[in-house]
Amino acid sequence: MTMQKRCAIIDTEFHHVPWEAAQRARDLPGPGPYGESKFSAIIDNLDSTYSKFFDVEACLQHMEKCGTDMALIGQATWTIASLEVCKIINDELSREAAVYPGKFIPMAHVPPLDGQPAMDELERAVNELGMKAIAVTTSQQQGLTIDDERMKPFFSKASKLNVPVVVHPSVKMPIWGGTKYFMSGSVSREYDIVKSLVEVLCGVLPEFPTLRFLFSHYGGGAPFLLGRIMSWYAPAGSAVPKELIGKPKTYAEFLEYGLKEEFDTLLDRIYFNTAGTGGWLPALKQALLVLKPERICFGSDYPFEMARPSDYKGFVDEVIAVDLLEQQTAEIFGENARRLFNV
Predict the structure, then answer these.
(1) Cα(244)–Cα(101) distance, rounded to whole angstroms?
(2) Domain count, the chain
């Protein structure tokens, strides 16, 4: 396929915490994103990846080299820090968005379980600082799941503010399968995402009918597992016979018991980004088999993946070459994100 005109590219997984926020957070007590006692564990031992992560000029240079027009910025894993840290992040992200107009879409950060002060900060971040989304991780401290009753005030506030929630995997170490063979990064985080997706689909969206979500990493491989998720779907009050509750159903039974319309309505409020597979095109092709193109958003996972512009641009070229309508390609690269984040 050859596009007649260049698409705007909005990167919906572009990790960045301003250096000023990191410096001011340096000596505050943790836990840090990986469970450190202080954030200084990261800040004082910068590697090449985190040097890019904190440096807004490096972010802009990367965007220029890659042809990226806008980037959704923030890092949900820092929300496990104190509310004080999150306020610093929000202030600095808002400042950077103002200094570089049209380049950044800032996300609001709060510890979601910190009660009314956190909800007040969410309101400030959206209504005063102009944040266009709210960041959250797939699981919280003390092992709380994203659909836990204690998360409901957070989602209620997000719904009232009418901004989408962006879900990123928890990166706490170790997680689920442990660290052997680097499984914490390769598959354990993805399990945490897809588990969180089902919790949102069944336990959050029905209660908050206007809330929208963007899930990282294709929802942890949700397109590959969607058939299985549907086969076990049996919401309260459905026509599923009692003897089939808690058992898998065929797709024909899924249709027969009238589950598809409600399931599709809920799923339609979830967007998925293309980050998390290192620019592996078959993942996008599988997603396009079961998801609407207007629910897929481009994402690179910078600077943890596709930090080399050659890889980034190579993936962009491969996506362009997929046999899609020109409008669908434009939606994936930017128009879906533009609509979701109202930019």
Answers:
(1) 54
(2) 1
Residue 342: inside a domain, yes or no?
Answer: no
Q: Give the C-alpha separation, 39 to 180, whole Å.
A: 25
Range of the domain at 194: 10-337
| Strand-strand pairing, 296-297 and 133-137 | unpaired
| Predicted confidence (pLDDT) per residue in 16-56, tens digit | 999 988 888 777 766 666 656 566 777 888 889 999 999 99
Is 3 part of any domain? no
Token couple for 323 = 């046999």
Structure tokens at 21: 């926020």
pLDDT in tens, 251-298: 999 999 999 999 999 999 999 999 999 999 999 999 999 999 999 999
Query: Residue 192 is part of a domain; what is its CATH number?
Result: 3.20.20.140
Whether 212 contacts 164, CB under 8 Å:
yes
Instruction: Find the DSSP H helices in 162-259.
Output: 183, 189-203, 217-231, 251-256
The answer to whether residue 343 sits within a structural domain is no
2 falls within a domain: no
